[in-house]
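User: Reviewer 2 asked us to show a designed sequence for the structure in our supplementary figure. I'm pasting the structure tokens here. Could you produce the per-position amino acids so we can include them in the response letter?
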């Protein structure tokens, strides 16, 4: 028998403990091969692997990592076109593998190679995880405050510290103050802790760039127009690209992402990407694992967490967290409630809603630490409390970026948002409901119907909303001069 390496192969597995022999149709949740009887298996049901393609690597990596005892399985590959003939012959030989070892060797898949690759990639992970939890008391906070103008208390208040303690980036941007060329400058950055050779722990800021540098070569690779469009829209290229490793100078397949908060380009070698085949209630097959491992995204999956939360989300590998992540999450319970209210014709007054109180007992606005789940630093909080319009941050809705602006409405006693439409990291216009409001409140423009109103306009407002504003508008309008009575003799 001659193994044809040019066409797709299929795998035949033997459990050396039980003696079970079968053609591989996929993987079980524990990583072991899912097998079908060789004699009755249909070729269309089998997992096919081409030489040099990634699916075999992904299968073997998951198998080595997840199977409780990989060594009990022997794996053998045979050309898919010859499966009917050679597959059955291999199965017969595997009934006595020791006696037929010489004939089986050309078809054997050497697991040692894959085990070494997994060990090496795990070595990278182990190196990253040796600081699996940072002791905040061992951080050099005095040096951090001196260099970057940020304190431990401020990071705790802004809900940034918890992720950082697990060696992840801060979830949001943090405002820093530092000295550059003798001058104090303010900048925004996502933060991670830096473990220095002397054992000290300081700060490593990922500073926000004005816009992503997609027109420049990145590690020897020039982004195509399709790459740029994917990065700007989704934050990820949906396929691997060949990058030059800056340390070794060697080319290696990698996946590339764009951090939309900082406009920083991120990458990780393909060989270091490990995608587990289960997250929450979702079990992934080998094709889905491969799509994620190659940088792709699985759309609109219904997720149910252990604590009972139910939502839709996209699945994508996270370079930042070195793990499978959920993005673009939408609560399904919220959607169900809205649909139910519409179907039964319930009004807002009768529909059950959670009522939030945004003011204190004296009617003043309460402090907001985040808005649309975007953290607000102390400066932004102070601006909001002072009644000013605050640039909160970027919100991604259905793949499109919006800059969120926030201002407290004194009459309604609640915060109101306006949304700037973004392209290439810059605000180029405003969402329909915000256009008039934004033009007047943010850009200093005037609207003929409200040009004399002194109050800030609400979202969507295009004319005076109450008697006071109507009076203001009318009072400043030019009045017609009274008609003079014609002079004449008194009768």
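Assistant: Here is a per-position design you can include in the supplement:
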């Amino acid at each position: 028998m001659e193994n044809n390496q040019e066409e797709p192969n299929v795998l035949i597995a033997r459990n050396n403990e039980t003696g079970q022999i079968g053609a591989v149709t996929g993987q079980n949740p524990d990583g072991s091969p899912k097998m079908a009887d060789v004699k009755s298996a249909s070729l269309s049901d089998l997992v096919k692997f081409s030489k040099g393609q990634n699916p075999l690597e992904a299968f073997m990596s998951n198998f080595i990592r997840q199977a409780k005892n990989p060594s009990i399985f022997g794996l053998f590959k045979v050309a898919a076109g010859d499966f009917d003939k050679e597959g059955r012959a291999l199965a017969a030989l595997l009934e006595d593998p020791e006696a037929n070892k010489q004939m089986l060797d050309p078809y054997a898949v050497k697991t040692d190679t894959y085990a070494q690759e997994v060990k090496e990639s795990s070595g990278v992970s182990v190196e990253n995880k040796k600081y699996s939890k940072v002791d905040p008391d061992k951080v050099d906070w005095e040096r951090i405050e001196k260099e970057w103008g940020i304190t431990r208390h401020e990071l705790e208040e802004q809900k940034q510290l918890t992720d950082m303690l697990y060696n992840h980036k801060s979830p949001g941007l943090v405002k820093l103050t530092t000295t550059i060329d003798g001058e104090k400058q303010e900048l925004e950055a996502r933060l991670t802790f830096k473990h220095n050779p002397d054992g000290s722990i300081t700060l490593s800021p990922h500073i926000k760039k004005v816009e992503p540098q997609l027109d420049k070569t990145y590690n020897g690779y020039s982004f195509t127009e399709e790459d740029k469009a994917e990065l700007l829209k989704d934050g990820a290229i949906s396929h691997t690209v060949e990058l030059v490793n800056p340390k070794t100078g060697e080319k290696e397949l990698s996946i590339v992402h764009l951090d939309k908060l900082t406009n920083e380009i991120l990458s990780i070698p393909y060989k270091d990407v490990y995608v587990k085949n289960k997250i929450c209630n979702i079990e992934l097959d080998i094709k889905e694992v491969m799509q994620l491992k190659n940088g792709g995204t699985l759309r609109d999956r219904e997720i149910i967490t252990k604590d009972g939360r139910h939502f839709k989300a996209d699945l994508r590998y996270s370079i930042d967290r070195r793990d499978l992540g959920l993005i673009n999450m939408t609560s399904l319970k919220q959607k169900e409630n809205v649909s139910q209210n519409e179907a039964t014709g319930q009004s807002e007054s009768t529909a059950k809603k959670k009522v939030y109180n945004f003011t204190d007992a004296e009617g003043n606005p309460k402090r907001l630490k985040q808005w649309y789940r975007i953290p607000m630093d102390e400066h932004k909080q102070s601006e909001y409390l002072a009644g000013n319009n605050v640039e909160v941050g970027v919100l991604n809705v259905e793949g499109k970026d919006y800059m969120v602006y926030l201002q407290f409405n004194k009459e309604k006693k609640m915060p109101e948002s306006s949304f700037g439409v973004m392209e290439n990291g810059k605000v180029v216009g405003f969402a329909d409901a915000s256009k008039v409001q934004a033009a007047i409140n943010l850009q200093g423009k005037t609207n003929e119907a409200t040009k004399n109103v002194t109050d800030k306009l609400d979202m969507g407002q295009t004319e005076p909303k109450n008697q006071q504003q109507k009076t203001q508008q009318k009072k400043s309008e030019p009045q017609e001069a009274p008609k003079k009575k014609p002079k004449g003799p008194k009768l």
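For the response letter, you might also mention the following. The chain has four domains: 9-129, 139-207, 278-354, 370-474. Residues 370-474 form one domain.
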